[in-house]
């Protein structure tokens, strides 16, 4: 194989692997979009009692409505939402990790 061909193929392989990593950065899980981003809570309970809490970031569409209940399911938490039209939707999150839920996204017709 010619050196230029080998370099071109190697470059394409690297680009493909980077592209596939980006494709998996966000994953739709049980009604919520799990992102590859994290949120850092900085907490203080007095002068000597401070800590940081890292939270996984999820996005749930605003159109799901108001959060009306949270129920346990094995090692998960189920968030129940009621939309303006009365429909109920659930979102399941891993209860073993601290999370932050952002209300973003829409329902398409």
Fold and architecture overview:
Mean pLDDT is 75; it is low at 4-24. The N and C termini lie far apart (52 Å). The protein contains one helix and seven strands; from the N terminus they run αβββββββ. The strands form two sheets. Strands 1-2-3-7 form a four-stranded mixed sheet, with no helix packed on it. Strands 4-5-6 form a three-stranded antiparallel sheet, with no helix packed on it. Helix content is 19%, strand content 50%. The longest helix is centred in the N-terminal third of the chain and has 21 residues, at 3-23. A hairpin with a 5-residue loop joins strand 5 (76-82) and strand 6. 7% of the residues are buried. By secondary structure, the protein is an alpha+beta fold. It has one domain (26-103). It has one helix spanning 3-23, and strands spanning 27-29, 32-44, 50-60, 66-73, 76-82, 88-94, 99-103. The chain is elongated, with a radius of gyration of 21 Å.
């Amino acid at each position: 194989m010619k050196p230029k061909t080998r370099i071109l193929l190697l470059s394409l392989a690297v680009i493909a692997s980077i592209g596939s990593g980006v494709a998996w950065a966000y994953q739709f899980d049980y009604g919520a979009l799990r992102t590859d981003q994290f949120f850092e809570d900085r907490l203080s309970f007095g002068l000597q009692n401070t800590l940081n809490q890292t939270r996984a970031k999820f996005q749930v569409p605003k159109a799901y409505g108001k959060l009306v209940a949270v129920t346990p399911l094995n090692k998960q938490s189920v968030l129940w939402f009621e939309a303006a039209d009365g429909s109920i939707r659930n979102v399941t999150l891993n209860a073993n990790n601290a999370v932050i839920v952002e209300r973003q996204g829409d329902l398409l017709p």
